[in-house]
Amino acid sequence: MKTLLALFVLVPMAVSATIRTVSNDINKPAQYPDIPPAVAAANSGDTIYVNGTQYTYSDFTVTKKLVIIGAGYNVANQFNLISMVNNISFFKDAGVNDGSGTVITGFKIYAIGVSGSSLGITNIKIFRNQISGISANTGTSNWTVYNNLITGYLNGANASSNFIIQNNIFFSGGNVVNFNQPSVVIDHNLFINDSGALSALQFAIVTNNIFTSSSNTLVMSNINQCTFNSNMSISTNISSYTPSNSFLANGNTGGANQSGSATPTFIGVNPQFVADGDFNTYNNTFNYRLSSGSPGHNAASDGTDIGIYGGTYPFPSGGAPGSGYDTSPLPPIPQINSVNIQNASVLPGQQLQVNVTATVNN
Question: Which residues are CB-contacts of 79 (< 8 A; sequence separation ≥ 6)?
Fold first, then answer.
């Protein structure tokens, strides 16, 4: 595993930045035994690589701009070890502490949030993680959340603006709630069997998303002054408002001054995924790409497919479709897949022969 950490160091980074490595497995040591001491020692702009182990890392708070990269949340290699942490918080005060500008990728996380009475945290990038919940606070802005599995809330706290929420898979209760500031974009996501997948939204732009369920599940509630374009829902029970077809063009429905769809919108329509045996449940062996005959194929407002494989951040693959890793992309850095020692026993002065295979996860 020391070889793996050494490979990480080869990734081109800013000249002034320091790279720090973390492992909480005493049998595979790194520079730091846990994430909090690495964060405390880091300077703004540093990168922290967090090794995949069988252990959960300690909660930590980010008080400076950092790039924090885990090994992934479902890793298709011979080690099959992931980077797990329960809680990550961002903090900013009127002094030197400011976690704005941080990047988080490659983790299985219970919750991401903002600490206490922290001032507005800005310019956060969260991608290629599995997350149970994300919460913002007053003044939070310019967050980009993409290519994640989200199993709980993404809560704007009615005070967040300029949020980009793109190409994520929401399931097991995953939803977007409580955004009432302008410039919130919810685009090219997949919402699986979530009653109220969207709730308490105002001024949001909702485009090119797919909502699935095998029943008449309520798609959204308490939606006001939002814009909808090129969305698709299996359910016909779109909104708690009357009339309920908030996706339809020229309807002024789903709340005051509702903007209708300028491009095709699909209600009560099967998206025709390549392989999906259950519209109510996420399964990592399913293939959520649209078949060539799907009505959503090339039907998005940007000319790409509706759903997670179109748009600005098409969902990357972590393995072959059906393998269980297709929707588990690794962080976009070189990573070792296997290490094979050819001659485990050598005499003094002889060379140890090691065969290493690795990939770059674009």
Answer: 52
CA dihedral 273, 276, 278, 284 (to 10 degrees): -120
Q: Which two tokens stand for residue 288?
A: 């959520």
Structure tokens at 208: 């090119």
User: Could you tell me if residue 60 is left (phi over 0), alpha (psi between -120 and 50 degrees) or otherwise beta?
Assistant: beta
Q: What structural domains does the chain harbor? A: 18-333 (2.160.20)
Tell me the helices (H) and strands (E) count for the chain, helix number first: 2, 29
Which residues of the chain are modeled with pLDDT < 70? 1-16, 117, 241-264, 335-337, 358-361
| Single pTM value for the model | 0.88
Residue 84 burial (CB < 10 Å; 0-12/13-18/19+)? Answer: buried
Q: How far is CA 92 from CA 38, 63, 85, 201, 221, in A?
A: 18, 6, 21, 26, 33
How far does CA 6 lie from the centroid of its chain? Answer: 27
The residues with which 68 forms a beta bridge, in sequence order, are 48, 104
- Cβ burial of 277 (10 Å; 0-12, 13-18, 19+) is exposed
CA distance 88 to 4: 25
Instruction: Give, rounded to a whole angstrom, the gap between the first and last alpha carbons of the chain.
Output: 22
In whole angstroms, give the CA distance from residue 45 to residue 27. Answer: 29
Contact 213, 236 (CB under 8 A): no
Q: Which residues does residue 192 pair with via DSSP β-bridges, in sequence order?
A: 212
Q: What is the pLDDT of residues 198-247, one digit of tens each?
A: 999 989 999 999 999 888 888 888 888 888 889 999 988 888 765 555 66
From residue 135, alpha-carbon distances to 51, 112, 113, 272 in Å are 26, 6, 5, 33
